[in-house]
């Protein structure tokens, strides 16, 4: 699909400098752009490339002033990075704009569907499922009984959504994610064997949530595991039963959150963080990668280490830790001098 500079400028409310009829059909980095490609410049670090790029169109900030001749057609906007992101979203919507029901697939007679839906081949839709408008379920998606899915939801191939799950509007769930599997509930007996504790709760995912590939979210033992509005989850995250994650919290890959822990709003959690169960994590908390959290955390704390402690204290301690061999040598030398009466 091709777009002219004039069409792009209209979408972005931008001003053209150059040929309004030049066409592009692909997106590229500014240093790699070729004829027929669209790129952008927002970071001053890459300014030199604007004079050498072969891209046909470049989006730049409105205050950009060329200091050398430029062959590329420019589209000037208030914020080049934001404008390019808008364009990527627009492009993605066009690319993913599928409709209809492919065969073979199974749709229960009791399921209810909104308008403009897409259901890919080999999908399974269970009993009493409710699916909203503009929903896209890609091939091999499983949707269990009594699931509710809101409007404008995209579920990529191979996702498994267990029964009773509720998903809000404008959510994206990437391939291989599993939502609503049993929580890890077992009771030890006197004979040393474990008995299964039934997991009869569900998962609730509110609006505008993104769930990365391979992430798993367990259903609650009782009640609900809740992912609040605007949460962003990276790939391969484990969220246990009865966890609650507050709105607009972002969590990086391979983090594990044990059962019944409550995480506040607007938190940032790095990769490979481990959080034990039944904790209260406050709002706006920042946890560095590979930290181990074993205590309740107050609002606005920044933590690092395992077990984690204050970010500033960790950095001060790490300076001493790196110098520990020298410190030990010094102490050994002082000990020898004391023993020798020097």
TrEMBL record:
<comment type="subunit">
    <text>Homotrimer.</text>
</comment>
<dbReference type="Pfam" id="PF04613">
    <property type="entry name" value="LpxD"/>
</dbReference>
<dbReference type="InterPro" id="IPR007691">
    <property type="entry name" value="LpxD"/>
</dbReference>
<dbReference type="GO" id="GO:0016410">
    <property type="term" value="F:N-acyltransferase activity"/>
</dbReference>
<dbReference type="InterPro" id="IPR001451">
    <property type="entry name" value="Hexapep"/>
</dbReference>
<keyword id="KW-0808">Transferase</keyword>
<dbReference type="GO" id="GO:0009245">
    <property type="term" value="P:lipid A biosynthetic process"/>
</dbReference>
<dbReference type="Pfam" id="PF00132">
    <property type="entry name" value="Hexapep"/>
</dbReference>
<protein>
    <recommendedName>
        <fullName>UDP-3-O-acylglucosamine N-acyltransferase</fullName>
        <ecNumber>2.3.1.191</ecNumber>
    </recommendedName>
</protein>
<dbReference type="InterPro" id="IPR020573">
    <property type="entry name" value="UDP_GlcNAc_AcTrfase_non-rep"/>
</dbReference>
<comment type="similarity">
    <text>Belongs to the transferase hexapeptide repeat family. LpxD subfamily.</text>
</comment>
<keyword id="KW-0441">Lipid A biosynthesis</keyword>
<comment type="function">
    <text>Catalyzes the N-acylation of UDP-3-O-acylglucosamine using 3-hydroxyacyl-ACP as the acyl donor. Is involved in the biosynthesis of lipid A, a phosphorylated glycolipid that anchors the lipopolysaccharide to the outer membrane of the cell.</text>
</comment>
<dbReference type="GO" id="GO:0016020">
    <property type="term" value="C:membrane"/>
</dbReference>
<dbReference type="InterPro" id="IPR018357">
    <property type="entry name" value="Hexapep_transf_CS"/>
</dbReference>
<keyword id="KW-0677">Repeat</keyword>
<feature type="active site" description="Proton acceptor">
    <location>
        <position position="241"/>
    </location>
</feature>
<keyword id="KW-0444">Lipid biosynthesis</keyword>
<dbReference type="GO" id="GO:0103118">
    <property type="term" value="F:UDP-3-O-[(3R)-3-hydroxyacyl]-glucosamine N-acyltransferase activity"/>
</dbReference>
<keyword id="KW-0443">Lipid metabolism</keyword>
<feature type="domain" description="UDP-3-O-[3-hydroxymyristoyl] glucosamine N-acyltransferase non-repeat region">
    <location>
        <begin position="22"/>
        <end position="89"/>
    </location>
</feature>
<comment type="pathway">
    <text>Bacterial outer membrane biogenesis; LPS lipid A biosynthesis.</text>
</comment>
<dbReference type="InterPro" id="IPR011004">
    <property type="entry name" value="Trimer_LpxA-like_sf"/>
</dbReference>
<keyword id="KW-0012">Acyltransferase</keyword>
